Amino acid sequence: MDAIATLADHVIATRYDVLSEQTRAAARRLILDTVGVGLGGSTGQWTSDLFASSAGWGQGADAHVFGREGRFPAGLAALYNAYCIHNSEFDCLHEDAVVHALTAVLPAALAVAEARGGVSGRALIEAVVAGVDVAATLGLAGTAPMKFFRPAVLGGFGAVAAAGKIADLDRAQLINAFGAQYAQSCGSMQAHEEGTMLLALQIGFNARAAVESVDLARAGLLATQDTLEGRFGYFNLFEDGADLPTALAAMTGIRRIEDVVEKPFPTGRATHGAIEAVLRLLRRRACSEEDLHRVTVTVSPVAHSLVGRPVGSEMPANYARLCLSYCVARCLLAGDVAGAHFSSQALRDPQVLALAARIEVDTFDMAEPSAFGPSRVSITYADGTRAEETIGQALGHPSNPVSDGQRSDKFRANCRAALQPLEEARIVALEDRIADLDRLQDVRQLMELACPAT
């Protein structure tokens, strides 16, 4: 029996009443973060173009889209919302799995929940928990560097788990839905390499495919049964190395949503440790560009492969968000890294570009395959003095969590940045609604608050 059946069994067995309060709290916290990031992303790069180009893709008025009026076909809403969540690199992720764990999972679950109606907050929580378990477990099973973009491909499998849970699929239907999803799986690391907006779209494509795969399975489609371990299954085609039995065995005792990281900065996660190190150095000594004789950033080999790219004068915003030297230079000169630092004007700032070009990026000699830590920033000042800061787990990791105030501030700022900015009273009501998600009778009420009609 293929391991896809084990995942289907796990999804069916994931019920609200067996989840610990710690798991439920993690789900509420990350749903809040993801909804906020999606609202903020509704004004992100290429959103208007995407919306205009896809106007004829499907029919129906099933679900809401962040920042937009009206209702849209469920699959299209999942695509739009996943795109909005990832287009600013502000979305949460599971570091070790290298999966943006809710970015496809939550949009697919919300779209199916809105289309069905009467889906409770508790049902949404158990669906999101199951979806993250699936996506993260498959990511953790991979033991070689990525060729395909796991947040898209494995996010799609997680999205099927969540949407299938909402749709009350049985075991056979879930296995078929996973097979249908696999047939539509897409997303390469080339979009990450070039920093194009296709990176976020790849997650959207897989979120939409998940909604459609659930529909196909409900209609009786017989899809592939050996989806993970077959001769041409996922682990033989998409991964160069894997340890699936170990990842599956751990799934029985760990809810992966509890390990998911919240992002305090709208940049690639592999830049966050260095940004935090710079902030600590600036608290010890403020400086200008003239004060900086030499700046060296040292990260893990995997982090270097993700964000150790050269700075350029014509960088697209998404490339810059994944450029360690640009992010560190911005932080050194501005004392922060924020969304405004990735506007077309900000990306042409000659002072920042000049400093970024001088920053040396090195790697630790380490066997540990961690993608995101540790990070060290060393500064030699013009007066000859030297300072250094090393970060093990960057801010947002469960061992170095953001505060409740930081989380709320991020959520509220994203709500104000939406294409249709939310009024303060509505922001508070939405935040309260998610905090009390366990008692929500219909998920539609949440999305109606998040996406008001004007």
From TrEMBL:
GO MF annotations in UniProt: lyase activity
InterPro entries named among the record's database cross-references: MmgE/PrpD_sf, MmgE/PrpD_sf_1, MmgE/PrpD_sf_2, MmgE_PrpD, MmgE_PrpD_C, MmgE_PrpD_N
Residues annotated as domain MmgE/PrpD C-terminal: 265-432
Highest taxon above the source species: Bacteria
Pfam family, one: MmgE_PrpD_N
All copies of domain MmgE/PrpD N-terminal, residue ranges: 6-244
Family affiliation: Belongs to the PrpD family.
Name of the protein described by the UniProt record: MmgE/PrpD family protein
Species: Phaeobacter gallaeciensis
